[in-house]
Specification:
By secondary structure, the chain is α/β, with parallel strands linked by helices. The chain has one domain. Helix content is 35%, strand content 16%. Helix 9 links the parallel strand 6 and strand 7. It is globular, with a radius of gyration of 18 Å. It starts with a strand and ends with a strand. The relative contact order is 0.17. The mean pLDDT is 96.
Length: 257
């Protein structure tokens, strides 16, 4: 089983307390190409492409200018660097080394700049969302740029897994970078809903955090078969068999608004 997550806009580059060894990320040449293209964008370009403020455009222009694509020992491990809602649920900094080793084998993080990250791959500060329409020689968007590369790497990473199922805990924006035609793995997508007054709905913050919490559940319980994730019961969620299909699994809980 492989689990895929989205990255986060919010970053935390304080050094973790873990002494676990970092790994070298893949797609180094692709990342170099993208970083050079992004480095040539003006602040106005970045504001338009990313829909961000002037201050954020200035920050990210500086990040791209300082970016060293072949400095593989620079930065910190991806699982520790991301700090958004999903990663509040994952709580990677509280994992022990055995848990991190399991995550390294079973968890992947999609990235507009890096393609596909393992938890212990080092990254440098950046912001480049997968939906950004950054033009390159491969096309007019990052989806065009990555093509079938991410899917082929997922296929390779699933080799040797007892269950080759891909568990999609990423957002639609990011999972769109996984080329369905090139992917050779079955896919299941958990959905997290809040029930109140007889109705259920998705609330973004809670759903994002639940994705990370499910990934942490898989790590803590050393889950190898995707079907065992149906036992997920953290933060009050329960699997709803009647509302689910073979590929879309519904989890609900009571009382949040």
């Amino acid at each position: 089983m492989l689990i895929v997550l989205s990255p986060a806009k919010r970053l935390d580059f304080t050094e973790p307390s873990h002494d676990v060894a970092a790994t070298y990320r893949r797609f180094v040449d692709d990342t170099s190409t993208l970083s050079k293209t992004a480095r040539n964008q003006t602040q106005a370009d970045l504001r338009r492409l990313m829909g961000i403020s002037t201050d954020l455009a200035k920050l990210n222009q500086a990040r791209f200018k300082a970016f060293e694509p072949y400095a593989l020992d620079t930065g910190i491990q991806a699982a520790f660097a991301f700090a958004g809602d999903v990663y509040q649920g994952l709580e990677a900094r509280t994992l022990d080394n055995a848990g991190l080793a399991f995550a390294q084998d079973h968890l992947r993080i999609l990235s507009g700049l890096y393609g596909l990250l393992r938890p212990l791959d080092r990254i440098q500060p950046y912001r480049l969302e997968m939906g950004t329409r950054l033009k390159t020689r491969r096309g007019s968007s990052l989806y065009d740029f990555w093509g079938d590369r991410i899917s082929k790497q997922l296929n390779a990473d699933a080799e040797g897994q007892s269950d080759p199922t891909l568990v999609n805990l990423a957002s639609q924006e990011y999972f769109g970078a996984v080329d369905a035609k090139a992917l050779k793995l079955p896919v299941v997508t958990p959905h997290f809903r809040e029930e109140k007054d007889g109705e259920s709905r998705i609330i973004s913050f809670f759903a994002k955090k639940a994705r990370g919490t499910m990934a942490r559940f898989a790590i803590d319980e050393r889950i190898e078969a995707a079907g065992d994730l149906k036992a997920f019961d953290r933060d009050g969620y329960r699997f709803q068999k009647a509302a689910s299909t073979e590929t879309d699994w519904i989890f609900t809980r009571q009382g949040n608004s």
